[in-house]
Amino acid sequence: MENQLYNVNVVAKTILPTPAEIRAELAMGTAAEETVLRSRNTLRDIIDGRDPRLFAVVGPCSIHDVDAALDYAERLQSLASEVSDSLFVLMRVYFEKPRTTVGWKGLINDPDMDDTFQVEKGIRIARRLLLDLAGRGLPAATEALDPVMPQYIGELISWTAIGARTTESQTHREMASGLSTPVGFKNGTDGSLQVAINALQSARQPHHFLGINQDGRTAVFQTRGNLHGHIVLRGGGGSPNYDATAVAATEQSLREAGLPERIVIDCSHANVNKDPSAQPLVARDCIDQVVAGDRSIIGFMLESNIHAGNQRIPENLADLKYGVSVTDGCIDWETTANVLREAAERLRSVRTR
Predict the structure, then answer these.
(1) Residue 268 DSSP SS3
(2) From the centroid of its chain, how far is CA 113?
(3) Of 178, 134, 151, 182, nearest to 33 (Cα)?
(4) Chunked in runs of 10, what are the mean pLDDT values of the chain (353 residues)?
(5) 63-67 long-range contacts, Cβ below 8 Å, gap at least 24?
(6) Which of 126, 188, 236, 254 is the most buried (most CB within 10 A)?
């Protein structure tokens, strides 16, 4: 009888090491710890207006090749230092991919890209990469999708996004209220601001929710609320929402909700109608608004890789093109460098004023 009542549609389960075991095996060094602490404090200063720079989340739509990710990181770190007087740059390191229906779910869930879902292997790969990035002084930004995963990698993240598909989720709002990073909530896929505004209001409040602790035990978490949430405009419903009119409307909506006017522009997704080559135009418009006096825009996001475009995952993984996205299309490295250098140069005039 029990077989007819319990886990009726479950065919197997795999026991994972506890977060404490993974963290002991892949321990965080002093240099990595200093990177994350310094980066989170810098982001809070930017969000609260104490630091006049913008922050930029830049990198691949998703990580699938660690060697290419490290190659990209080396380039980005050098460029980040070059533009650091005007921009605070974080590498976009997305390991989990929400799917509208089905598809590759990201490096943590399916590191071998063959639907074998070696999650334990994926967690270790992801944590090693984050340790490497933080150890070399490059802060990481990611999307929080599975509410368990922050227990495995959360202390290595400096900025967190909640995606358009999950901003409306109570689970993710509660999780965000307890995250140790600033959190950006994207507007809904239909372009609605209200779901993100509701999420911001919720995440600022204390919550109680179920999760697992470092020993893998189910626990009730009590949070104090996260005061460094902000909205991320990514377009939707067939329309972009990055221009001055859309930003002004967002400012008004935040004001009416009693929320700080803090806005990040996602230069990809529906803001470019899935055309990655248009990202530099969106970034330029974003900087135009800041130069013209807007003070609500605190950052922007670029989907960027070593080479432009994207590719399908081939049956033979040896046929994968190096440094090309397997999810959304990206701009190439040369274009990325030009966008960041131009933005930094134009923002210097604002800082001088």
Answers:
(1) coil
(2) 21
(3) 134
(4) 80 94 98 98 98 98 98 98 98 85 87 95 98 98 96 98 96 98 97 97 97 96 98 96 98 98 98 96 98 97 98 96 97 98 94 59
(5) 63/93, 63/94, 63/95, 63/106, 63/107, 63/126, 63/129, 64/104, 64/107, 64/113, 64/320, 64/326, 65/320, 65/322, 65/323, 66/125, 66/128, 66/129
(6) 126
Return d(Cα 19, Cα 205) in angstroms, integer. 26
d(CA 170, CA 72) in angstroms, rounded, equals 35
Q: Which two tokens stand for residue 141?
A: 């930004």
CA 341 to chain CA centroid, Å, is: 22
Dihedrals φ, ψ of 133, to 5°? -65, -50
Enumerate long-range contacts of 273-278, CB under 8 Å, 24 or more apart.
273/235, 273/240, 274/328, 274/329, 275/329, 276/303, 276/308, 276/309, 276/310, 276/328, 276/329, 276/330, 276/331, 277/308, 277/331
Residue with tokens 């879902």: 117
